[in-house]
Specification:
This protein is mainly beta. Helix content is about 10%, strand content about 40%. The protein has five helices and 39 strands.
Amino acid sequence: MKHLIQQIILLIFYLVFIDFVQASQASVCHTDSPYYDLLVEKDGIYLQETIKAENKISYISQSKIRLKEITDKGAQIISDDGNKILVLSNAKYYFIRKPLYIKINKYEITPLFNENEVSKIVSNKFFLISDHWYYVSYTSEGESDKHKIPELKGNLEIIADSDSNKYLDNNAVLLKDDNAVYVYDMSKNKLEKIPHLTPSQTHLIQSRNTPYYLYDDDTFYLFDRDFKYTDITKKFNQQGKYNGFTKAEMHTNWSVDSMDTKDGLIWIKINSFKPVKATYLNAYKDLYVYHNKVYSHNWALQDEAAPSDPSYRDGSIDISNVKNPGELHKISFSEYFDNQQYYSLEENSRRLEKKEPSAYLKLLTAKDHIEIREKRIFIDGQQLNTDKFQDAPIFLGSIVDIISPCREIILPACGYEYRSKQDYYYFFTDGKKVYAYINPGENQKPKVLHNVSPRNLKANDYDTLKKLLNMLKTTAKENN
């Protein structure tokens, strides 16, 4: 169980980023994936990396690197697979390595094919050249490495990719063409056909425990993080379900993975899938009603199904305190939310008790939404104080000030998690003055930047927001 808890916590949020402008390392645990733009400037072409917080609004960092080898002002980013960026410039394709904090030199930009040679590209990895599929990577010397795969025919689709999924360990990719489903080992250049799957019917569902469930109508595989697969169809057959997997609904969540066959049975994954005559509590599909009791764990349902067992204990949970059970769902290992109130599961009483939300819980349930109605501002549904505004607010943008970087915190009872401390600044203007809300979830009154003119300020511009943040912090130090 401890290992499971650790896995769950690790799956939540963890990325470390670097602020290149200041040439210093800083990190925040809860982030959105970085994204990239090509900038055409007077002195050349630049690749710009932007990192935002998980709310997709607040900037964390932004940096750019000049691409000396690319001079075409019509250059464009074609795709980004997580490890490298595919760029088209002067009718030729190039790879650009990531992350950008590795200084780009003559080995970092890798030329590939001429544009007129390529009829199709799949996820920066597979290129269709003269009706033949090639897997393309780059060597440690920065040269392209191309491998023809004659077995692949027709339309090609990547189903799962270890390069772009941090929860998968192997250097492999799961893909399908018109004829079959395959695992391709990119390090060995080996293609392996997965038997008994019809490509057009094949489904892939990501889980929190077993990384994937891979199945068509009559074959069901567990697909682990090492890209090894196990056929468990016979285990279903022995319990009376022999086909029709694509007609069922798969659900994965905090509690347990399950499959609803729409016939009064829910197949709960207890080591393997087992049928239980239970129903879901609500549309979130993560709490279960069995014999008029509510459960949130697979092992609890298993114990309840065998009350004569000497180790039996009632694993149900008491939801009598819940205001809105029709919306109740799990948001972490022992914490719940009904879209009105937060709850924590008390182990002794097995009852959900009301609790005040932590910053972490707020993050999990944030609406990530800014709304301006006439002279009023709402952030995540919460109204801010705008009494000082003389006219309708205009949102200039938001930026994160990292107080302490992301660190691993050891928890007394359940493994560890990652935490960082940061302040969130939201800037607005009414056309006359500039206003800042610092952590608006806690402070609804703005600070006024008296010495800043809103004229010529760019909205949603990292440099502008960084400048405003530094001015605000400098003023605060002088006042202290």
